[in-house]
Amino acid sequence: MATLSEIEASDFERTPTGLEELDRVLGGGIVAGGVVLIGGDPGIGKSTLLLQAVDALSQGLKVLYVTGEESGAQVAMRARRLG
């Protein structure tokens, strides 16, 4: 166990997602090896937002899209609609 004052708080290198507002919320982008959980009410655009971020990130990185609520077919249809 350690107190917060004993822990060195160094900043991590972040990779911008290419989506300005998402990057702002994430403190500048995603951290390698990190996990970000996106939650919210159905239909507010979580999957659309993440597909757009994955598309931008995949231009320079390998990405993995994991979902626990949508089928592969649903993700593929949305991705095709987004181009």
Q: Tell me the count of domains.
A: 1
Largest sheet: number of strands, sense, barrel closure: 2 strands, antiparallel
Continuous helix count: 3
Number of strands: 2
Gyration radius (Cα, Å) is 15 Å
The strands making up the biggest β-sheet line up spatially as 1-2
What does this structure look like?
With 83 residues, this protein is mainly alpha-helical. The chain has one domain. The chain has three helices and two strands, in the order βαβαα. The protein has helices at residues 20-25, 46-57, 72-82; strands spanning 14-15, 30-31. It has a two-stranded antiparallel ribbon with strand order 1-2. Helix 2 packs across helix 3. The model has no long low-confidence stretch (mean pLDDT 90).
Give me some keywords for this one.
83 residues; 3 helices
Please render the helix and strand layout as text.
Layout: E1 14-15, H1 20-25, E2 30-31, H2 46-57, H3 72-82
Antiparallel strand pairs: 1-2
Write a brief structural summary.
The chain has helices at 20-25, 46-57, 72-82, and strands at 14-15, 30-31. With 83 residues, the protein is mainly α. The chain has one domain.
